[in-house]
């Protein structure tokens, strides 16, 4: 019997011309998930240690470890001997403590009024870049509270960093405090991702000049300037401890001029999604929102259970590729909030329940974060940070 559907031109035989059988369930029941390869993170961390040649290494795990899981990554790197960890906010520092991280943790973006005693309670260091914050911290802390601070000066980033005079004034104001201890001086590099930019050397010189100030020299301090680009490309920026972030997660800070693989970094993330529906398509029958894709031949479309609600950008529609059945297959039509269509016409092995990689490799085919960054006109940082909270994180390696 032929069932006529509303609209009258699509029959069940049109739509179900293909048999829809389930592929093997696999080990995850989720619609989309990340596999974070902790052994690759360790490899990249060891590369940072090697390049830092003697400087301490404090991995940057802000924004939940660039989206990949701050507690899991910190716990693994703590076991590898990481000297401390850097987060952006007090809340992120507390999350690390609650997750069992016992190494030193520093809050790089400062604290808000009312958070002073949390720093002491959770044993968090902080960057300090305002004299008024130094005063507020000393007066808000109780007799037994102890907080270590790193004074952050501006050497050219013009973001969070005080002018040198204010840096000196902070050191003087904290001189006799038994509650607040100045542990070091920090600053941040603005242009280190461009190896031909002379600004980095100028920033290093300005930082050195500040360290030579008599008031600064009078302290025993542990100073820090370098991010990943500094670690990898500017040995003169290493000082006592370095703060690598993106390189640990398999991203090159020099993208697109130097790719991660060329820099000896290993990819960390595989992002998978499961096929929730196979849609057979006759030629010229349009697909999805806006009918933004129309196949020219009889086609099989796999709808993956992932979309922009998971951080898979809508701008990837009709542009990106995913890996399924060991091949790079095109994303077709518009990416929806929860679903994304892929043309699997030439891959009958792809069925309901099969998995595809939005990021990662399978057999000889791969899609890496650099490819998505190029398509989206952004940097690898944003690709991984944007992967949504709805995507389960699984840890391997
Ligand atoms: C102050 C500071 N230090 C270090 C880093 C780590 O930078 P990257 O991920 O480029 O290594 C960041 C990140 O933006 C930062 O804000």
Description:
With 397 residues, the chain is an alpha/beta fold. The chain folds into two domains: 12-30 and 268-367, Lyase, Ornithine Decarboxylase, Chain A, domain 1, CATH 2.40.37.10; 38-249, Alanine racemase (TIM Barrel, Alpha-Beta Barrel). Helices cover 27% and strands 21% of the residues. The protein contains 13 helices and 16 strands. It has helices at 12-15, 38-52, 62-66, 70-79, 90-98, 116-121, 131-140, 164-174, 199-211, 214-217, 228-233, 369-375, 380-385, and strands spanning 32-37, 56-57, 85-87, 105-107, 125-128, 147-152, 180-186, 241-242, 269-281, 299-304, 321-324, 327-332, 340-343, 355-362, 365-367, 392-396. The strands form three sheets. Strands 1, 9, 10, 11, 12, 13, 14, 15 and 16 form a nine-stranded mixed beta sheet that branches. A hairpin with a 7-residue loop joins β12 and β13. α2 (38-52) packs across α4 (70-79) and α7 packs parallel to α8 (164-174). The longest helix has 15 residues, at 38-52. The radius of gyration is 26 Å and the shape is elongated. Mean pLDDT is 94; it is low at 1-26. Bound molecules: pyridoxal-5'-phosphate. Pyridoxal-5'-phosphate (PLP) binds at residues 60, 108, 188, 227-229, 243-246, 253.
